[in-house]
Amino acid sequence: MLAPRKVKFEAQKKERENFEFRTFLKCNADEKKLDEQFARLHNELFANYDCNKCRNCCKMYHGSIPTMDVEKAACYLGISIEEFTEQYLAKKDTEGNWKTKHKPCDFLQEDGSCKLGNCKPENCKKFPYTNQPERLWSLYSVLDAVSVCPVAFEIYERLKKEYGFKK
Fold first, then answer.
1. How far are the Cα atoms of 1, 34, 47, 70, 73 from residue 4, in angstroms, in the given order?
2. Over pLDDT 90: what percentage of the chain?
3. Dihedral sign from CA coordinates of 118, 8, 2, 151
4. DSSP letter string over 134-146?
5. Which parts of the chain fold into alpha helices (H)?
6. Residues linked to residue 64 through DSSP beta bridges, in sequence order
7. Which terminal residue of the chain has fewer beta carbons within 10 Å of its beta carbon, N or C?
8. Res 96: pLDDT
9. 3-state secondary structure of 92
10. What interhelical angle do 81-88 and 67-77 show, nearest 10?
11. Which residues contact 50 (CB under 8 A, 6 or more apart)?
12. What is the pTM of this model?
């Protein structure tokens, strides 16, 4: 598995190949089988992977907090909604989720854990979404994850082998 600091560089080197594989999957993959392959590889690789030692996702993206989770997160931190919003949140995105003020995410702690603990938003818990259904219809987002997450990068490389994909 690639070291977290090398993922972006290696993904850039394989950008054209990865895009071609995405096109190959769109034209050739069975949706159900592809979901099963993604889920199997996701479970296998994440079983022994400590995300706290990487956290590229937290370092490279702003955090995103659904409006409905703001009160719960503020309560978890022991501050008012107003204090939480003023201290951590910048603006809402097109889906109505709040973005954190900074990148890396304002909730990323030095040890790689999330300041929000169990209140961490679902979108953060699910990243890189490689075990979610309908991967065939969201392969662009998979390509984004491949450039951030060492596990997503490895999943994509293993899928290329499984499909016998040659550049």
1. 9, 25, 17, 30, 28
2. 93
3. positive
4. -GGGGHHHHHHHH
5. 7-13, 15-28, 31-46, 56-60, 67-77, 81-88, 122-126, 139-146, 150-162
6. 99
7. C
8. 86
9. strand
10. 100
11. none
12. 0.91
Omega into 104 within 30° of 0, i.e. cis?
Answer: yes
Bridge-based pairing state of the strands 97-100 and 64-66: antiparallel
Looking at the chain, the whole-number percentage of residues with pLDDT higher than 70 is 100
Contact of 135 with 30, CB cutoff 8 Å: no
Strand, coil or helix: what is 100? Answer: strand
Mean pLDDT across the chain: 95
| The pLDDT of residue 92 | 87
- The set of residues, in sequence order, having a beta carbon less than 8 Å from that of 113 and lying 6+ positions away, is 52
Q: What is the pLDDT of residues 9-50, one digit of tens each?
A: 999 999 999 999 999 999 999 999 999 999 999 999 999 999
The secondary structure of 62-80 as a DSSP string is: --EEEHHHHHHHHHHHTS-
Q: What pLDDT is stored for residue 4 in this prediction? A: 95
Q: d(Cα 151, Cα 3) in Å, to the nearest integer? A: 10
